[in-house]
């Protein structure tokens, strides 16, 4: 999902800022274009079966009867086109990208993530640094669903994830990143 831009974030003695960006944009573009083209093909074949004429010569619909196959192909085509356009819009808007900033000058922690275009879609979470109790590492290993998270533990509140990785790092790299944040904030590091 998201990945830290580099392992050397903007850091001085008073401010630690980590840029979060989407890692696999090229792969997403390829998948979205394939879904868009496939959905368009399904829709064209469905419409061709209704008018009994091949709109595109290499998409033969002579064997397709409009009811029920043509209707189903139109439905699948429309669904695929809507999904791919939505995913392309999300990729263009850079939804999910943002930054984590720990500012000792202001005494604030700010977590910002960009949303899709629309009213109030961005996520901007601000807490006092004094509310931070600890930094927590959470590792969930599964055959197909491995997750690694770094969370901020707040006093008397829920933990807030500041880094969620679906493509796991080595354990020592994850621990190094979490310990860097914990040492900057002078709070303990916890594991789960």
Automatic annotation (TrEMBL):
Topology in membrane: Multi-pass membrane protein
Pfam family name, one: Ycf4
Keywords from the named record: Chloroplast, Membrane, Photosynthesis, Plastid, Transmembrane, Transmembrane helix
UniProt-annotated location(s): Membrane
Annotated TM spans: 29-51, 63-85
One GO term of the biological process aspect: photosynthesis
Residue ranges the record marks as coiled coil: none
Main location: membrane
GO cellular component: photosystem I
Record family assignment: Belongs to the Ycf4 family.
Biological function: Seems to be required for the assembly of the photosystem I complex.
Protein name according to UniProt: Photosystem I assembly protein Ycf4
Lineage summary: Eukaryota, Discoba, Euglenozoa, Euglenida, Spirocuta
């Amino acid at each position: 999902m998201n990945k830290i831009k580099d392992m050397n974030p903007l850091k001085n003695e008073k401010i630690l800022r980590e840029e979060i960006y989407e890692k696999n944009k090229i792969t997403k573009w390829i998948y979205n274009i394939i879904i868009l083209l496939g959905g368009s093909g399904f829709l064209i074949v469905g419409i061709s079966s209704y008018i009994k004429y091949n709109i595109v010569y290499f998409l033969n619909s002579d064997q397709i009867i409009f009811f029920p196959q043509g209707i189903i192909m139109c439905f699948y085509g429309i669904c695929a086109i809507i999904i791919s356009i939505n995913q392309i819009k999300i990729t263009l808007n850079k939804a999910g990208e943002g930054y984590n900033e720990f500012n000792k000058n202001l005494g604030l922690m700010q977590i910002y993530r960009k949303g899709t275009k629309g009213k109030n879609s961005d996520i901007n979470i601000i807490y006092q640094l004094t509310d931070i109790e600890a930094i927590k590492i959470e590792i969930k290993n599964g055959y197909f669903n491995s997750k690694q998270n770094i969370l901020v533990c707040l006093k008397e509140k829920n933990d807030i994830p500041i880094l969620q990785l679906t493509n796991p790092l080595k354990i020592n790299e994850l621990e190094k990143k979490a310990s860097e944040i914990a040492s900057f904030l002078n709070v303990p590091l916890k594991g789960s």
